[in-house]
Write a structure and sequence with these properties.
heterodimer; A: 266 residues; Rossmann fold; two-stranded antiparallel sheet; 7 helices; 28% strand; globular; B: 337 residues; alpha/beta; 7-stranded parallel beta sheet; 24% helix; elongated
Chain lengths: 266, 337
């Protein structure tokens, strides 16, 4: 099975508190916050690698990102991807979900035939959850989101279990398909030093806009229908009344207030 | 009237499963009706499914001018491509200026593909919408990674599209004039883009569900480890409430994604909210509405959460929460007299 896993470098969610926003441009000022592979994308990688381990094939990690995050993205090779393809071009910058999905779909097409494109359900930075479905639309193949189990039936179809707020369903579909996964699909493997060393010789391919069948008007800011009009502060801000004293004293005051407001009856 | 074209349309996608409209459909109708206050604007509800005439009846007095119904056995279940084909054709035929979807599993999937097919803009998980006199939609979203909101516009492409988080807008009255019901083409010309559904299980709504909980205790990244999560649950349980989470505990795998409260999770309306180890990003806070008392426990006195709540406890939650649980469990002094 020929599989492509879309991965995105995001600011380390554990250090999100250190980041600020440039209010004029709307861009994140990352300061010293390092990038990591978006957590759900690791689950997507793991799912694809497991399918390859059972059914054979190839796993390509694919990312659109500035080339200075290449070392971070190489973790995908240690996690079992056979090769890494980085789409890096200044002209990709400023793209909304439509422009991003357009570039990724063009790259998937450029890499040849595929059976499965896997993504994480959403990213920790922008979290729109729109890109996987839009990639599928540009590739003109079906997609399923919120997948928490993925297998291959004896006749080579994909068998997927998806769960959302309305319920769960099991679906079967022919490849090629785009699937996005939740954290419930698997527990990503622990990466050892041996995995890292073993991955050193794997193929890394860097492509620019010129390598792909794209028009300038489809990519980056130019290819993005949405615009940020402005950033503003929300109105309702009220500074909390801060309790004082030891933890036990503060807890006692809160418990008393909650009782008086009727939140604890027994 | 004179300077507006008579046919400006706001459409909402009337998501239904087994004939039951999603709650967010009514919320979207209420907002669309307000946005369409200017003369010349019409609100349309796009209803897709099989045997949905009863569903149309449920929507007809809720603020829509017209309900556009595509009814076809092939539309019984949502399978991506089948609904997309119908919505795509309807949008091309009627050219609505604005199309709104609930930010549900179905709404996000369908809206994303439709926006890509039409090559137009889609704002995700909006918490407010504004329409100016030129018919330009501004979608308000919590800006990633900070304490700002952003206004997103789609200046050159139509329709202007947005998904709206459930629970954000008010449900409209049910005494609006009856909407006109129009039948639109629900034919499926190919089965491209479909998958087969082998089995489905509807989610059982639990009474203790977050959306309806009177008390919600939310744990954040400050909880620090999966084994400490029990404290959040115990406090919720002592208060007769439900535990929720911000995004990081979900990403860390401490809790299931179902518990996430916020822009891309659930919207809660508790009387009491207690945030434990919650930093206070807007992504989370926009999912907490209509609270009577908001309490935060955080070690960092500069945490943003203290700017968004009524009562703050600064200190180590591992000391405060057990003490609070113990104090709440104590029999009320003099309570029996």
């Amino acid at each position: 099975m020929e599989m492509i896993v879309c991965i995105k470098p995001v600011p380390d969610p554990k250090q999100a508190g250190k980041m600020t926003i440039d209010r004029e441009t709307g861009t994140m000022i990352r300061r010293d916050v390092p990038s990591v592979i978006n957590p759900l994308d690791r689950h997507a990688l793991e799912a694809s690698v497991r399918i390859r381990e059972r059914h054979g094939g190839r796993v390509t990690a694919l990312s659109m990102a500035p080339d200075d995050v290449l070392p971070v993205l190489k973790e995908s090779l240690a996690r079992g991807a056979d090769r890494l393809v980085l789409l890096s071009d200044r002209r990709f910058a400023g793209g909304d979900t439509l422009a991003t999905a357009c570039v990724i779909a063009a790259a998937v097409g450029h890499l040849g035939t595929f059976d499965l494109v896997m993504c994480g359900d959403e990213t920790t930075d922008s979290g729109t959850a729109q890109v996987s479905a839009q990639i599928a639309e540009f590739l003109d193949v079906p997609n399923i989101m919120h997948v928490d189990d993925c297998g291959v039936s004896p006749d080579g179809d994909l068998r997927l279990h998806s769960r959302n707020e309305e319920g769960a369903f099991t679906a079967e579909g022919q490849t090629p398909m785009v699937v996005s996964v939740t954290a419930d699909i698997n527990e990503p493997r622990y990466v050892t030093l041996m995995d890292v060393l073993d991955s050193e010789g794997k193929e890394v391919l860097i492509l620019s806009a010129d390598d792909l069948p794209l028009e300038e008007s489809w990519i980056g800011l130019e290819g993005s229908p949405t615009r940020v009009l402005e950033l503003f502060e929300p109105e309702r801000k009220s500074r909390a009344e801060m309790l004082s004293g030891t933890p036990a004293e503060q807890a006692a005051v809160l418990a008393d207030r909650l009782r008086r407001l009727g939140f604890r009856n027994g | 009237m004179a300077n507006r074209q008579p046919e400006s349309r706001i459409w909402i996608f009337a998501e239904q499963r087994s004939g039951q409209p999603a709650d967010v459909v009514f919320e979207l109708l209420g907002k669309a009706r307000l946005l369409a206050a200017a003369p010349g604007w019409k609100v349309g509800a796009l209803l897709i499914g099989h045997n949905v005439s009863g569903t149309a009846a449920l929507l007809e007095n809720r603020g829509a001018d017209e309900i556009l119904v595509a009814d076809n056995p092939g539309l019984e279940d949502y399978r991506g491509g089948n609904y997309l084909a119908v919505v795509d054709r309807a949008v091309r035929n009627y050219q609505p200026d604005v199309v709104l979807f609930g930010a549900t599993a179905m709404g996000v999937d369908l809206a994303s593909r439709l926006a890509a097919r039409l090559r137009t803009g889609l704002s995700a998980h909006c918490i407010d919408l504004e329409l100016n006199e030129k018919g330009e939609l501004a979608a308000v979203i919590p800006w990633p990674g900070g304490d700002f909101l952003g206004r997103i516009v789609c200046p050159r492409h139509r329709p202007q599209m947005a998904t709206v988080s459930p629970g954000i807008f008010d449900v409209p009255r049910s005494d609006f004039p009856e909407a006109e019901v129009l039948t639109i083409d629900g034919a499926l010309n190919s089965d491209r883009g479909f998958y087969r559904i082998l089995e489905k299980k509807p989610e059982e709504r639990k009474p203790g569900d977050l959306e309806n909980a009177r008390v919600v205790v939310v744990g954040g990244y400050g909880i620090g480890a999966r084994e400490n999560w029990a404290l959040v649950e115990e406090l919720a349980s002592v208060l007769g409430g439900v535990a929720g989470a911000t995004r990081p505990p979900v990403d860390e795998g401490w809790v299931n994604a179902d518990l996430m409260v916020g822009q891309s999770g659930r919207t809660v309306h508790p009387r009491l909210y207690i945030g434990v180890g919650v930093s206070g990003h807007l992504h989370h806070l926009v999912g907490v509405k209509g609270t009577e008392l908001k309490v935060a426990v955080n070690q960092d006195t500069r945490a943003a959460i203290f700017d968004h709540c009524d009562l703050g406890l600064a200190g180590d939650y591992r000391e405060i929460i057990p003490a609070l649980i113990a104090a709440l469990k104590e029999p009320r002094a003099g309570g029996d007299l």
